[in-house]
Fold this protein.
Amino acid sequence: MNTMEHPWRRPYGGYHQPRGLAPDDELTRVGPGTPGGEYLRRFWHPVAMASELGDAPLPIRILGEDLVLFRDKSGRAGLLHRHCAHRGTSLEYGIPMTRGLRCCYHGWTWDVDGTCLETPGEPPQSRLKESVFQGAYPVHELDGLFFAYMGPPAEQPPLPIFDVTGQPDTKAATFSILIDCNWLQTHENGIDPVHAAFLHARPGATSFGNVFTVVPRLDLMETPTGFIVLTTRRWKDKVWTRASESVIPNLAHIPMPFENGEHPRMFGRAAFTRWVVPVDDTHNIYIGWRFFSPTLDPFGKGNPARCGKNMIDFPGQERERDPREAQLDPGDIEAQVSQGAIVVHAAEHLGTTDRGVLALRRALRQGIRKVAAGERLPLPASPSVDGVIPTYGHDTVLTIAKQDGDESELLDGISRLVHSTVITSADHPREQRHAWVEKRVREGIARL
Ligand code: FES
Ligand SMILES: [Fe+2]
């Protein structure tokens, strides 16, 4: 039978719809020993904001593992398996010591690397502590986020430092939002920019500016660390072109959400950098930095005070909403969570606007299979001349006279010019990139 003739591909075919389709376990499962979980364990991930950790240990769950993050009284951070290796009491009740974390139950004390420092109830001559270890992972604190590496120690890569870190005159506010669905559908939201023209631009909706109502021209370009999904729109006498960057596996650098397309802007860098980190198969945290500076936020619409635990300063990301309000004005969270706890890829019907989603799934599957075959992953990215990894997420607004008729070719040409220039500019030190991009783009526009 021709697949077009299947009874579910006909009007009133509800009864015949395929049932019981299963999620793609290879891409979506994250626990220890699963192919996807093993792959994700080869990368550093942010696991908590520094602001979440007070004097007491912080219980967290990452990649399906229950853990406890703590800082000992010497200021060293540690990430331990949550249940004490003695008899399983949760170390969330542990006592931070000058060195290590002391279990509340029998006082066994664990160093940040899991070494047992003390078993105080055992006889003084006991050598038990030399042979027991608490599961531990390396952690690193960077600009208000704790990063952890949960993979095999022999394969630990250096913590990647991107050029979004340490930008001059820029404040980085941290945020971490718990989302009740599989990590992949949350990550896919960020590389599916066409949704902004619908979800965030519904008539009467509060979400984003009018320029988002224009359905963009779409494109995709590879970068050394993943790919950028490009959207280009005509708006009055301006052309606005924007790149949402996906760094494999779960990182994105995303431009300003408040763009109105009315003012020229050249190579405006990412307004936020965020990872989607699996908590377990059906929950994730959307965690990262929101950047503020006069150039990153020219309209002064951002608000660092509204970034933090379960909040960020633009619409559509609130967890707890009045259901009626959410129905009238749904945001990213409603769109993702309502796809299901784990979206079933076999039930989807992807279109041309899903190029980013397909590119991501392809790249993830390749990586997962490499790890499953026992291969070592290449380093995710090489630093540029100034020791940081270049990023490509950005937006540019140009004044370009409107042409008569179909402008598709013009818009695609501008998109290619701007974004290929931005990719090439990565060879330059970061403080020179802006001027270099501006010069090349102006020269290129003059030739169009
Ligand atoms: S259970 Fe932790 S010291 Fe006994
Ligand atoms: Fe969105």
Summary: Helices lie at 25-28, 35-40, 183-190, 323-328, 332-337, 355-372, 408-424, 430-447. Residues 84, 86-89, 103, 105-108 surround FE2/S2 (inorganic) cluster (ligand 1) (CB under 6 Å). The domain at 43-155 is CATH 2.102.10.10 (Rieske Iron-sulfur Protein). The longest strand covers residues 226-235.
